[in-house]
Amino acid sequence: MRWYFPAICMVALGIAWAPSAQAGVVTMSPNPVDVGGVLVGQTGMASGKLSDTSNEKVDLSAPINCSGSAGTFTLSPTQSVNLNEPKTIDVTYAPTMRGTRTCRIDVFEEGTTSPVLGSFQIRGTGQDPPIINVTGTRNFGSLRWNDAAVPHTSTRTFTVTNQGDLDLVVSAVTIGGANAGDFVITAGSVPQTIPRNNTAQWTVTFNPSAAGGRSATLTFASNAATAAPALSLTGEGTNALISVDDKAFGIVSTGSSSTLDINVLNQGANPRGRLGVTTAVITGGSWFTFSACGGGTTCTFPTPLSIQNNATVGVRCSPAAAALANDMQSATVTFTSDTDNAASNPDRVSSLTCTAGKSALATNNPSVMFPSQLFMTPAPAQTLVAMNTGNISTSFYLRLTGAGASSFTATATGGCGTAAGNTCTLAMGASIDITVNFTPGMEDDIVAGLDLVSTALPFPQLSLAGRGIDRHIAVAPEVMFADTFRNPGNRATIAAVPVRNTGEYPLRVSGVSVTGEPNWALAEPVTAFDVPGMGSHDVMVKFTPEAAGKAPNGTLLVMSDDRTFPTSMITLSGNGKDRRVQMGPPAIDLGDTGAGVPTRLSVLRPDDLLAIRNRDTDNAFTIRAIEIEGDQVFSIVELGADEALPAGATKTFDVVFNPPGIGEYEATAVLYLDEDPTPHMSIPLHGRALFVDAHGGGGCSAGTGSSAGMILVLGALFAGRRQRAAALLAASLVPAAASAEPTRNLQLTQFDPTPTTASSAASLQLQSADVGRSGDFIATAIASYAANPLVLGTVQDDNSVVGKQLMVSIGAAYAFAKRFEAGLRMPFYTQSGDTVMAGMIGSAPASGTALGDLTAHVKARLLQMRRLSIGTGLALTLPTATGGQFAGSEKPSGRGLVLVTVAATPRLSFHLNAGAVLRTKAAFANIEQKSGPIGGVGATLQVADPFTVSLEVFGDSSPDGYRGEPAPGSTMGTTSALTTVEALVAARFQVARTFSVTIGAGRGLTSGVGAPEWRGVAMLSFTPKARARVIVAGRVVEYETLDPKVADSDRDRVSDAADKCPTDPEDRDRFEDDDGCPDFDNDKDGILDEADRCPIAEDQDGFEDTDGCPDPDNDKDGVVDASDKCPDQPEKINGVDDNDGCPDAGEALVMSTPERIELVQSVAFEGNTISAESGNVLGQLAATLRARGDIARLRIVAHVQPSKSRSRDQALSEERATNVRDWLVTWGIEASRLEIRGLGGTKPLIKPSSKGAAQINDRIELIIIERN
Questions:
Q1: pLDDT, mean of residues 1059-1078
Q2: First to last CA, the chain
Q3: pLDDT per residue over 975-998, tens digit each?
Q4: For an engineered disulfide with 772, which of 174, 506, 776, 896 has Cβ 3.0 to 4.6 Å away?
C-alpha cells in the first residue's frame, strides 16, 4: 500500500515526490518539455526523457491545466510507458493561434488515474510566419543630372520590419525599371536575418543621368509568407546652363569708377535645376575689379551661387588718372560653374570694355607764323582750329601774352572765350575756329603767345610770330654795254639792268621805258612787275648800234611804289663795231660757155672759188645771203640758208654760169652777214655764152645747125664790146622767157626695153600687144652699149659730153587676170666723155656710175583675134636717177602707148607702138625735152623654132625742142622738133624652154640727142613657166616639153613610140590629142578649125548653118529644139509650162542682171529645210540657169537673222545654201556650176531688233562669179 496523499500534495505543488518507502520518483527531463515556436496551422515536436526510480510502468494523462494561447498537444507514448529506463516522450504541438500554451501532464501508475506518481509541464508557442514591412520615402526629388553639380545625388533609406514571429531573412534587394541605372543601393547587405519585431535598413542613392522624370522599382526578396510589394522610386533630373552678358562701361572719367552688374543667367531647359557658380576671374586690362569679393580680380564666392533663374555679379571699371582720352581697355570675366556641357558653352565668359573719359583741348597748329607783312597793314587772317580731342566736354578762354601781344588779336567763332567769365564750351569731338590777326607796327620780328586756358591740363599754349617789312628801290646810275656789231639783228647785245629791292616787302614797278632809239630799246615788252623783298629784277635792254664807234647814250626810266624814290633814272652807254669778214677773189670771170650749157667756176678754176673768210677768231657769223644783182644767170651753189661762218673759218662756194642764150652777162655777188641789212662786201661776176649744138652721134651729120650760123657766132667773139653786149643781151632775153632752166638731168636714151610675158614678143624696144598666161613670170637682164649719145658741137670742135654709155637694166614682169601684165625695170649706167680743156667751150663730161630712173609699167590686152592683137601700155618713171649725169629726169614722167600686133603668118608678125610721153620741160644747150609723141614699128620673123630675128625703128619727138644756129645778123635761131629715131636689128635664140638670149645692134637714124652713133645690145630672159612654141601646119602651137630622155622627134609631147605622126606635131586642141597627129577640121564639116567657131559638127537645121557650129537650142531658152514646141520663140520662165519652150502668160519670179540673179520671191525655210511654197521660185531659177549657159559659175549665198549664237547662225546658213544647191542639182543643174557660201548673221540688211527683221534678213543671194 502506498501513501499517496503526500505525493499528491507535492505534485500539486509541482514538486517531485518520492515515497519514503518503495515509491519511485518520476522525473521528466527536461521539464517542461518545450516544443518551442510552431507556426500556427503547423505542428512542432519536442522530446523529453521520462524516468522513474522504481522502474514502473506508467500512463500519462491528457494535457491538463492548460493556459495561454490555443492549440493542441499530443504526446507519444502515453500508455504503459516502461520506465525501466528513461523513456523518450514525444510532444507534438499544433497551435491554432499565436501565443504560448502551457499544460500539465500527470503520470499514473499503469492502468490507474491516481495517485499521481508525478507530473511535468509541456509547453508550445504558436507563432505567425515572418511578415515583411518596408517603409521609406520613395521620391528622391529633383537633382542636377550633371555630375559636376553640387549636390547631384540624393539618398533615401528604406526600413524593413519583421512583423512576424519567425526570423525574416532578406535574401536579395534589387532595383529595376526604366531608369534603374540612376538608382543605386549604397547601404544594406544581403542576406540578412531580421528577428521578430526587429528592423533592418537599406540606403538607395539617386544620381540622374539625364534631364526629366526618372523612375525605377525597389524589390526585396525574403522568406516572408507574403512578398513585399515592389516600391516605385521616382526622381527628376534637371538642367542648368550658364549664360553671362557682356558689359560695355562706355566712357568713364579717368580717376573715377563705374560699376555694372553682370547678369549670370541659368538658361537650362525645363526641368531647370539650380546653377552653381563657385568662382569668377577677371583677365586682361588693369582697370577692372569686382565690386565685392574684396575688390580684386578673383572672386571665390563664400557660398557658391545657387541660381535658379539669374543672379548678378558687380564689376567695376576705374580708368587710371594718367590714361588718355579714348584709351580703351578690355577684359574678360570667366565664371567657374557646374553648367552643363561647360567645355562647349562659351557663354560662361563675359567681355568687358571700358573707355577712358578725359577732356583734352588741342589745336591744329602749335604756332601761328605770319609771313612778312607790310608795315602798318593787316596781314591776311589765319585761322586755328581748337578741338576737344577728349571724349568729355571742356571749356576755355583766350589769353594773349608777351611783348608783341599788341600786334595780334585772337577771336573765337561766336565771340566766346574773351575772358574767364566768357568761356567757349566744346562737346566731345567738337571744334571751333579761332581767327588770329596780325598788323605789324614796326619793321622787325614780332612774337607773342596765345593761351587757351582750360580746366583740361595742360592747356594749349601757342606761339605767335610775324615780321613787319617795307620796300626800298636801288638802281645803278649808269650801265655800260659791251661793244656790239653794227646792225646785229638777233645778235644784238642784250644786257640785264638790275632793279633791286633792299626792303623785304615786294617792290611794285609800275612802268619801264627806254629813250635813245634805234640804238637802245627794251629787249622785250615790259609790263608792271614786282621785285621780291631783298631781291632784284633784271630789265633786259637791247643795244643795236647803227654804226661803229660811240653810240648815243640812252636812258632807262623805272617807276615804282617806293615811298621815297618813286622814279629812278639809269644812263645806258656803249660802242658799235664792224665784222672782220673778207670776200674774194676781187672779181670772177667765168669765160666763154655754150648757151644753155651750165658751167661751174669749180670746173674752170677749182683753186679760185668764191671764198668768204672770217678773220675774227672770237666770233662766228652767219652768211645770210649772197645775192646776185644784175643778170640772173649766175647762181651760188653749196650755200644753205643762214650758212654758219665759224670764228677764224673760211667758206668756199661754187659759182654756176647758166646762160639761156648767147650773149655777154654781168652781175654782182653781194654778201649779207647776220641780220645786217647793209651789204658787207660785193664782187663782180662776168661770163659769155656762145651758140653750141647738142646732138647725138646718129644721123648723117654731126649736128642740125648750119655752119654759117656757127661762123656768125664766132665772128661775134671779136666784135666791139658795147655793140656785142646789146645784141647778145637781146638774144638772151627771148629764149630765157620761153625756155626751161638748163639742166643736165635729161632722159638721154630712148632705148629702155620693157620686159613682157608674151611668148610672141621678140623685139627689144617695141612692146607686143599680147600678154602671157595668168601666172607667167619673166625676168630680164639687158646690157646696152651706146657710142656718143650726147655731143656738143662748138665753133672749136665737137665735145662728147657722153661718149661711152653702158646701160645694164634689170627687169621683171608678171601676167595676171588673163589679159593684164605688170612689171618693173631699173637701169644702171657707166658713162664717160671728153674732158674740156682750159679755154675750150664745152660741158663737163658724164663720168662714173649712175643710177637711172625706176620705171613701173602695166599692160592690158584689149582685143585678141586670130591674127590681130590690140593692147595698151602705161609706164610711170620715178626720179631715182643720179643727178647731173644725164641718167634721168628730175620729176616723174609717164608714157602711154597703143600696142598693135599683126600676125601676117604664124612666123611673121608686125608691131606698132604709138603714144605720147608726158614730162616736165628740161633744157640743155640748144635743145629742150618736153612732152611729145613716141612710137615705133617693127617686125619679127621666127626663122626656126628656137631662132627669131627682128627689126625695129623707134623714137620720140619734142615739138619745138631744137633751136638752130642764129642767121648772120640775128640773135635768135629758128626752132624745130627735136626728134630722136633709132633702128635695131636683133636675133633671139631659145637656149632652153625657160631661157633665151637676144643679141642686137643698131644706130641712130637722126642726130637728135640720145641717138647713138651705134648701139650693141645683149639680153638674157628667164621665163620659168614658159611653154615650147613651134609652128605646126601654119599654126603656132605651145606645149610643155617632155622629159629630155624620152624620144619626141616633133616635140609635141607625144613620144615617138606612141605617135602616129612622129614628124607632124599634135595641134593640142582637145580633140584626139593623144594620137600625135594634128587635126585641122575636127568636126569634118569642111570648115578648118582655125576658122571654125565650133569645131563640133554643124547640125544643118536651117539655123546659122554656115558658122560651123551645131545649134541644139536655136532660141537659146534652155529647151533643146528636139523638145521645144516653139524652137524659134524663147520660153518665158514664169513657172507656167517652163519646159515646153513656148512663152506663157504669167509673172516671172527670177530676174537677171549682169552680176546677179535676183529672186522676186524669197526662198522660205522651215529651219534648214526648204518650204514647199518655194518650189515655184526655185523651179524658175533652175529653168533660168538651164537657159543661161553663159553663166559658168553661180555663188549661192545664204544669210540668216542674227541670234545669240554665231556658230549656230553660221551652221544654219551653210545648211540652207547646201540645200538650195542640192535642190538645183536635182533639177538638172550641174554641180560644178554652183558654189555655196554661208555668212551666218554677219550681214543683216536691217537691225535685228526691227519689226519684221527676220523676214528681211533671212535671204538667199545669187551672184554670178564666172561667165563663159
A1: 74
A2: 192
A3: 888 999 999 999 999 888 789 999
A4: 776
HEC profile of 284-297? CCCCEEECCHHHCC
Using CB atoms within 10 Å of the CB of residue 218, give its burial: 0 to 12 exposed, 13 to 18 middle, 19+ buried: buried
Cell of 343: 567645355
Same domain, 635 and 571: no
**Residue-wise DSSP of 1119-1181:** S-TTT-SSTTS----SSSSTTSSS--SS--SEEE-SSEEEESSPPPEETTEEPGGGHHHHHHH
Does residue 318 surpass a pLDDT of 60? yes
Q: Does residue 635 sit within a domain?
A: yes
- 336: domain CATH number is 2.60.40.10
Q: Do residues 1019 and 898 both lie within one domain?
A: yes
Spatial contact of 611 and 581, defined as CB atoms under 8 Å apart: no
C-alpha cell at 149: 553639380
Question: Cα angle at 959 between 958 and 963, to 5 degrees?
Answer: 90
**Residue 101 falls within a domain, yes or no?**
yes
pTM of the model: 0.43
Q: Are residues 31 and 140 in the same domain?
A: no
Whole-number CA gyration radius for the chain: 75
Whether 572 shows a pLDDT value over 90: the answer reads yes
Q: Is 920 exposed, middle or buried (0-12, 13-18, 19+ CB in 10 A)?
A: middle
Whether residue 759 is contained in a domain is answered as no
User: Quick check: 700 pLDDT over 70?
Assistant: no
Task: Say if residue 885 is in the same domain as residue 1030.
Answer: yes
Considering the domain architecture, whether residues 780 and 891 belong to the same structural domain is answered as yes
Asked whether the predicted pLDDT for residue 269 surpasses 50, the reply is yes
- Residue 368: pLDDT over 90: yes
Instruction: Work out whether strand 1014-1022 and strand 995-1004 pair parallel, antiparallel, or are unpaired.
Output: antiparallel
User: In the chain, how many domains are there?
Assistant: 8
Contact between 823 and 788 (Cβ < 8 Å): no
The C-alpha cell 616787302 sits at 505
What pairs with residue 310 in β-bridges?
A: 265
pLDDT one-digit tens code per residue, 1201-1250:
999 899 999 999 999 999 999 999 988 899 989 999 999 999 998 998 88
User: Among 278-287, 308-317, 1030-1039, which stretch is predicted with the lowest mean pLDDT?
Assistant: 1030-1039
- The residue out of 335, 357, 379 marking a domain boundary is 357
pLDDT(513) > 80: yes
The boundaries of the domain holding residue 332 are 242-357
Is position 9 within any domain? no
Q: Are 979 and 955 in contact (CB under 8 A)?
A: yes
Same domain, 1030 and 1169: no
Does residue 451 share a domain with residue 417? yes
The band of 1119, judged by pLDDT with boundaries at 50, 70 and 90, is low
The answer on 316 and 302 residing in a single domain is yes
Instruction: Round to whole Å and give the CA distance between 258 and 187.
Output: 55
Q: Are 968 and 954 in contact (CB under 8 A)?
A: no
Q: SS3 breakdown of the chain: % helix, strand, coil, rounded to 5?
A: 10, 45, 45
